[in-house]
Write a structure and sequence with these properties.
Largest sheet: 7 strands, mixed
CATH class of the largest domain: Mainly Beta
CATH architecture of the largest domain: Sandwich
């Protein structure tokens, strides 16, 4: 099959359209005596003028040329007929039809170009992993189809093709005009390595694509879990012991100790980073804050920031590899604040350096009590209780309850990340302070916010 681009109709102007059929020698005037078409099914309107009966002699071309109407009685006025051709599946063809009037034949020579159906470049899409069911599609674009074609597809595989299945199929789902043939490779590859696919259409090769069957060992997720310990519970029983165990080390969360940072200082931010407690040397994971912050500090079992308002956020970043779309992650942590600090937060994540943010599943709708604004939230700060029974001498409390600002949210990653920074943030998603009234409900810039105890991000437990 072949196709070409549409050709314009070759219109030969006739200046005698208004000559009368009523003269001594009656005659017929048609708009053109030659017409040219491309290979597609199409029709063109043509003018006709005579006085008296006329008809069309198809001269053996009725299987691909149609004139509508193909007979009539003229009254001397200009009338119109439609000359149509069927889709041409083969080589260029020509034919002549005749307008018959008053015993004479007036020819119209018609030429239709060869079919120029064409295939484009073969492409492959999907992933192949040894020991995992194949998910790979060969795509072959085409153009200038009539729409009722039918072809047999086969595929020749070379290389590490053991376990893969390339079936013979009949494809008869062509669209009229342009489209794409999709051919699916099935089976389960058994061996890592390169594999090539050649797609054949009716026995004729139409292209080859080469891809790699991955070794499962090379696709293990790295970079998770990570956690940040703001209390260091194993260091002692009192607040001072816990605090002292962190200060002066590379895990010092005092905001000003960046000179002790052994990790890469260039990404994702050079301001106010916290190191992942256990995985710094491997993951280079950070905990920081985004907003017009007025001051920072380290308190008894928490990281402290002052001045965060609506749309400011706590930011966690860890470098990951092979984070597949659909992977379920769990965020676990607690937030507190002063009475004028923000009350609710939404968990969001990014796989493109913070350009695009996805809202984590598992939130609930929260309605601002005074403005009616709505947000899906994951965490609601109720209190900022830091000590067991409110007694500093008993140490930092670690109550994992919503009433203490704690949340545990499991969500699937909508878009994966092969290699790069994975961001998770807790964004204050409504302009509502913790302690609010109808007249004082907006977040105050002088309020303080705290991330307490431990914050964790890990692959969800089955």
């Amino acid at each position: 099959m072949k196709l070409i681009n549409k050709l314009g109709l070759v219109i030969l102007a006739v200046t005698s359209l208004f000559a009368s059929c009523a003269k001594e020698e009656a005659y017929l005037v048609r708009e053109n005596d030659q017409l040219s078409f491309n290979c597609n099914e199409q029709a063109v309107e043509q003018s006709l003028q005579c006085q008296g009966a006329w008809s069309v002699d198809y001269n053996g071309t009725k299987d691909w040329i149609t004139v509508t109407p193909d007979s009539g009685v003229g009254n001397g006025s200009v009338e119109f007929v439609s000359v149509a051709v069927a889709y041409n599946r083969g080589a260029e063809r020509t034919g002549t039809i005749y307008m018959v009037f008053n015993g004479k034949q007036y020819p119209i020579a018609i030429t239709q170009a060869a079919c120029d159906f064409a295939y484009g470049a073969l492409k492959g899409d999907g992933s192949l992993v040894a020991g995992k069911e194949a998910a790979y599609t060969l795509s072959l674009p085409y153009s200038k189809a009539y729409g009722d074609e039918s072809v047999v597809l086969t595929c020749t595989m070379t290389g590490a093709s053991a376990g893969l299945v390339a079936p013979e199929v009949t494809y008869n789902s062509f669209s009229k005009g342009s489209g794409v043939i999709d051919y699916v490779v099935t089976g389960t590859p058994t061996t890592p390595g390169e594999v090539s696919f050649t797609l054949n259409v009716d026995g004729e090769a139409k292209g080859t694509v080469t891809t790699t069957i991955a070794d499962p060992a090379d696709l293990q997720l790295s970079g998770l879990p990570v956690f940040w310990d703001f209390a260091h519970y194993d260091a002692g029983t009192t607040v001072d012991q816990k605090k002292g165990a962190i200060q002066g080390t590379q895990y010092d969360y005092s905001w000003g100790s960046l000179s002790l940072n052994p990790c890469d200082s260039s990404a994702p931010s050079t301001d106010h980073k916290f190191l992942d407690w256990n995985y710094c040397d491997v993951n280079q994971a950070y905990f920081t804050v985004s907003g017009k912050i007025t001051s920072y500090a380290y308190g008894e079992g928490h990281a402290y920031a002052k001045g965060m308002v609506y749309n400011d956020y706590w930011l966690m970043a860890t470098k990951v590899r092979n984070l597949a779309a659909g992977t379920k992650l769990t965020f676990e942590g607690a937030i507190g604040c002063s009475g004028s600090g923000p009350k609710v937060a939404t968990i969001e994540y990014s796989v493109d350096g913070g350009k695009t943010w996805f809202e984590a599943a598992g939130g609930r709708e929260y309605v601002h009590p005074y403005t009616g604004d709505k947000a899906n939230i994951h965490l609601e700060v109720f209190t900022d209780n830091q000590y067991v029974n409110g007694d500093k001498s008993q140490g930092v409390r670690n109550d994992k309850t919503a009433e203490d600002g704690w949340a545990k949210v499991t969500f699937p990653v909508e878009k994966g990340l092969e290699d790069g920074w994975f961001y998770v943030r807790l964004r204050y998603s409504l302009n509502l302070r913790l302690m609010h009234s109808a007249s004082t409900y907006t977040i105050a810039t002088g309020g303080s916010e705290r991330v307490k105890n431990e914050v964790k991000i890990y692959v969800a437990e089955e």
